[in-house]
Protein backbone atom coordinates (compact mmCIF):
# COMPACT_ATOMS: atom_id res chain seq x y z
CA UNK A 1 0.00 0.00 0.00
CA UNK A 2 1.24 3.47 -0.86
CA UNK A 3 -0.15 6.88 -0.02
CA UNK A 4 1.67 9.63 -1.91
CA UNK A 5 1.01 13.17 -0.68
CA UNK A 6 1.88 16.17 -2.83
CA UNK A 7 1.10 19.83 -3.27
CA UNK A 8 2.95 21.39 -0.38
CA UNK A 9 5.05 24.51 -0.67
CA UNK A 10 5.62 28.05 0.49
CA UNK A 11 2.64 30.38 0.54
CA UNK A 12 1.98 33.81 2.01
CA UNK A 13 -0.53 34.31 4.80
CA UNK A 14 -4.01 34.48 3.37
CA UNK A 15 -3.05 32.34 0.41
CA UNK A 16 -4.25 28.92 -0.72
CA UNK A 17 -2.81 25.51 -1.41
CA UNK A 18 -4.34 22.24 -2.52
CA UNK A 19 -2.84 19.04 -1.22
CA UNK A 20 -3.47 15.74 -2.93
CA UNK A 21 -2.93 12.17 -1.81
CA UNK A 22 -2.80 9.35 -4.34
CA UNK A 23 -3.48 5.87 -3.01
CA UNK A 24 -2.44 2.55 -4.50
CA UNK A 25 -2.42 -1.06 -3.40
CA UNK A 26 -5.74 -0.90 -1.55
CA UNK A 27 -9.43 -0.85 -2.34
CA UNK A 28 -9.66 2.88 -1.88
CA UNK A 29 -13.43 3.16 -1.67
CA UNK A 30 -13.50 0.91 1.41
CA UNK A 31 -11.25 3.21 3.44
CA UNK A 32 -12.01 6.35 5.35
CA UNK A 33 -9.36 8.94 4.63
CA UNK A 34 -7.85 11.60 6.83
CA UNK A 35 -5.34 14.40 6.85
CA UNK A 36 -3.04 15.09 9.78
CA UNK A 37 -0.27 17.59 10.35
CA UNK A 38 2.78 17.97 12.52
CA UNK A 39 4.29 21.36 13.19
CA UNK A 40 7.93 21.74 14.26
CA UNK A 41 8.33 20.75 17.89
CA UNK A 42 4.72 19.67 18.24
CA UNK A 43 2.81 16.43 18.21
CA UNK A 44 0.94 15.28 15.15
CA UNK A 45 -2.65 16.47 15.13
CA UNK A 46 -5.81 15.54 13.27
CA UNK A 47 -6.95 17.97 10.58
CA UNK A 48 -9.83 16.44 8.61
CA UNK A 49 -11.48 13.17 7.69
CA UNK A 50 -13.95 11.97 5.09
CA UNK A 51 -16.03 8.81 4.88
CA UNK A 52 -16.01 6.20 2.15
CA UNK A 53 -18.59 7.84 -0.09
CA UNK A 54 -17.32 11.39 0.45
CA UNK A 55 -20.07 12.25 2.86
CA UNK A 56 -19.79 13.56 6.40
CA UNK A 57 -16.48 15.41 6.38
CA UNK A 58 -15.19 16.41 9.79
CA UNK A 59 -12.61 19.04 10.69
CA UNK A 60 -10.62 20.19 13.65
CA UNK A 61 -12.03 23.49 14.88
CA UNK A 62 -8.96 25.49 13.89
CA UNK A 63 -9.49 24.82 10.16
CA UNK A 64 -13.29 24.83 9.90
CA UNK A 65 -14.46 27.20 7.21
CA UNK A 66 -10.97 27.40 5.67
CA UNK A 67 -10.12 23.82 4.68
CA UNK A 68 -12.16 21.39 2.59
CA UNK A 69 -11.49 17.69 2.29
CA UNK A 70 -12.72 15.79 -0.77
CA UNK A 71 -12.14 12.47 -2.45
CA UNK A 72 -12.46 10.89 -5.87
CA UNK A 73 -12.93 7.14 -5.59
CA UNK A 74 -12.53 6.72 -9.35
CA UNK A 75 -9.05 8.26 -9.19
CA UNK A 76 -8.10 6.93 -5.73
CA UNK A 77 -7.30 10.40 -4.49
CA UNK A 78 -8.15 12.52 -1.48
CA UNK A 79 -7.53 16.26 -1.54
CA UNK A 80 -7.29 19.01 1.04
CA UNK A 81 -8.10 22.49 -0.21
CA UNK A 82 -6.60 25.01 2.19
CA UNK A 83 -7.69 28.64 1.99
CA UNK A 84 -6.96 31.69 4.13
CA UNK A 85 -3.78 30.07 5.33
CA UNK A 86 -2.17 31.27 8.53
CA UNK A 87 1.41 30.96 9.80
CA UNK A 88 0.16 28.49 12.39
CA UNK A 89 -0.87 26.14 9.58
CA UNK A 90 2.81 25.57 8.85
CA UNK A 91 3.47 21.86 9.22
CA UNK A 92 4.17 18.61 7.45
CA UNK A 93 0.82 17.29 6.25
CA UNK A 94 0.13 13.56 6.09
CA UNK A 95 -2.70 11.58 4.55
CA UNK A 96 -3.84 8.38 6.18
CA UNK A 97 -6.36 5.57 5.67
CA UNK A 98 -8.48 3.48 8.01
CA UNK A 99 -11.30 1.03 7.51
CA UNK A 100 -13.74 2.43 10.05
CA UNK A 101 -14.24 5.31 12.45
CA UNK A 102 -13.60 2.96 15.36
CA UNK A 103 -10.27 1.70 14.01
CA UNK A 104 -6.82 3.23 14.00
CA UNK A 105 -5.36 4.71 10.85
CA UNK A 106 -3.57 1.77 9.24
CA UNK A 107 -1.71 3.36 6.35
CA UNK A 108 0.18 6.66 6.24
CA UNK A 109 1.72 8.74 3.51
CA UNK A 110 5.19 10.27 3.63
CA UNK A 111 4.08 13.85 4.24
CA UNK A 112 4.29 17.10 2.35
CA UNK A 113 5.59 20.34 3.85
CA UNK A 114 3.41 23.44 3.96
CA UNK A 115 5.08 26.68 4.98
CA UNK A 116 2.98 29.80 5.49
CA UNK A 117 5.20 32.83 5.72
CA UNK A 118 5.63 36.31 4.32
Outline the structure in words.
The chain has about 120 residues and is mainly β. It has no helices and eleven strands. The chain has strands spanning about 1-5, 10, 15-25, 30-40, 45-50, 60, 65-70, 75-80, 90-100, 105-110, 110-115. The protein is globular and about 40 Å long.
Fold blueprint:
Blueprint: E1 2-6, E2 9-11, E3 17-24, E4 32-38, E5 45-50, E6 58-59, E7 67-72, E8 77-82, E9 91-98, E10 107-108, E11 112-116
Parallel strand pairs: 2-11
Antiparallel strand pairs: 1-3, 3-8, 4-5, 4-9, 5-6, 7-8, 9-10, 9-11
Short account of what is shown:
The protein has 118 residues and is mainly β.
Q: How much helix, percentage-wise, in residues?
A: under 10%
Radius of gyration: 13 Å
Major beta-sheet overview: 7 strands, mixed
Strand content: over 45%
Total helical segments: 0
Outline the low-pLDDT stretches: none
Tell me the number of strands. Answer: 11
Structural class: mainly beta
Indicate the overall shape. Answer: globular
Mean pLDDT: 96
Order of H and E elements = EEEEEEEEEEE
Distance linking N and C termini:
37 Å
Entry keywords:
single chain; 118 residues; mainly beta; seven-stranded mixed sheet; four-stranded antiparallel sheet; globular
